[in-house]
Amino acid sequence: MSLCVEIQKRLGNFQLDVQFEAHQEPLALLGASGCGKSVTLRCIAGILTPDTGKIVLDGAVLYDSTAHINLPPQRRNVGYLFQQYALFPNMTVRQNIAAAVRNRGRRAAEVTEKLRRFRLEEVADRRPAQLSGGQQQRTALARILASEPGMILLDEPFSALDGYLRQQLELELQELLEPFQGTILWVSHDQGEVFRNCRRVCVISQGRSQPVQTVEDLFLRPETVAAAQLSGCGNFAMAVPQGDVVFLPAWNLTLRCAAPPPPGIDCVGIRARQLHPAVSGEVNAFPCAVVRVIQDLSCTTLLLRPLDAMAEAPLLRMELDRESGLADQRELLVSVSPEHLLLLR
Ligand SMILES: Nc1ncnc2c1ncn2[C@@H]1O[C@H](COP(=O)(O)OP(=O)(O)OP(=O)(O)O)[C@@H](O)[C@H]1O
C-alpha cells in the first residue's frame, strides 16, 4: 500500500516539480504559502493534469504521461478534504454522506454508522450552511470515509476554524482517522500540526520537493534555510566556516560550533528560544543593544542588535519567559550554545 508521485506542472510563471513516496502513513506536505501544496494535491486527485510524470497508488497507475494514462477523479479512489470542505449545499448531512456510498445495498446502514461514529445524528437533516465549522468538517470526513478511499488528501484541514475549536478538532480528526489503513497526505503550513500528527514530512519550497525526512530531523536538525524557516527558526545570518567556528560578517561575530561544519555550510540559524542571557566569559557570549521589547501573551520577545553589527544587519530575536525581568535592560550579554547553532545550506 503506497503512493509514488513524480510530477511536473507549469502554471503561468509557477513551476511545480515534486517527487515523493508515502507508505500507509500520514505524510505531511509542508511549505510556505504559494509553494505548490494544493496544486500537488489537485494533480493527485485528478482535478488538474500534470504536464509530465507519473502517479501510482497501491500499484494502480493514476497518471502516466509517457503511457498516456490519466484516470478521471471518480476512478482514482482518492478522498479529498478541501480547505472549505466542499459539501453539497442543497443536500442535508445525511444526503451528503449517502451520495458517497458506492454500494447501494449497504447505503442506509453505512449512513447510520457514519452519522453515529461522527456524532452527526442530531444534525443529520440540516444543510451545510446550518452547521458549525466542526460539524461541517466531520460531515466532510464522514462523506470521504463512506466512499472507502485508498488514500485521503487533507488540505489544511483546520484553516477554516479558530483556536479552541481547532485544538479540539485536531484531536478528534486523529481519532477518526486512526482506523484508516491507507496513505494520508496532510498539507499544512503549521509546524506544530505537522509535528503532532505525522512521523514523516516532505518539504516543498518554491515548487520543488525536498527528500522526505522524519519530523524529528526537520524540526530538531534542519539542514537547509527553507527547512529551518519552516521549523520556526527566526534568526539567520550568512556564515563563513573556519575550522570549528563560523564567522558571521553581518553581526561581526565568531561563534563556536559543536563540531567542524561539513562542506557546503554558508548560513547559520539561531532559534529565538535558544538565545539566552549569558555570564561574562561564557562560550559564544556577545553583547547586544536591546532595540525593542514585544510583550506577548506567554512570552517576551527582545529584538537585539549585536554591538559590532553592520548597520543594515538583521536584528536578532530572543524569546524569554514573561517573568524573566530582563525586559527593561538597555544592553544584554547573550549566548547560544554550540550544539544549538543550526548549520545550514
Ligand atoms: N489555475 C492556476 N493558474 C495559474 N497559477 C496558479 C493556478 N493555481 C495555482 N497557481 C499558482 O501556483 C502556485 C502554487 O499554488 P498552491 O495553491 O499550490 O499553493 P499552496 O502551497 O497550496 O499555498 P497556500 O498554503 O497559500 O494554500 C501559486 O503561485 C499560485 O498562484
UniProtKB/TrEMBL annotation:
It comes from the Bacteria. One of its GO terms (molecular function) is ATP binding. Residues 2-231 form the ABC transporter domain. SUPFAM superfamilies: P-loop containing nucleoside triphosphate hydrolases. InterPro entries: AAA+_ATPase, ABC_SmlMolc_Importer, ABC_transporter-like_ATP-bd, P-loop_NTPase. The keyword ATP-binding applies. The keyword Phosphoprotein does not apply. Gene3D superfamilies: P-loop containing nucleotide triphosphate hydrolases (3.40.50.300). Keywords: ATP-binding, Nucleotide-binding, Transport. PANTHER family: SPERMIDINE/PUTRESCINE IMPORT ATP-BINDING PROTEIN POTA, SPERMIDINE_PUTRESCINE IMPORT ATP-BINDING PROTEIN POTA. This is ABC transporter.
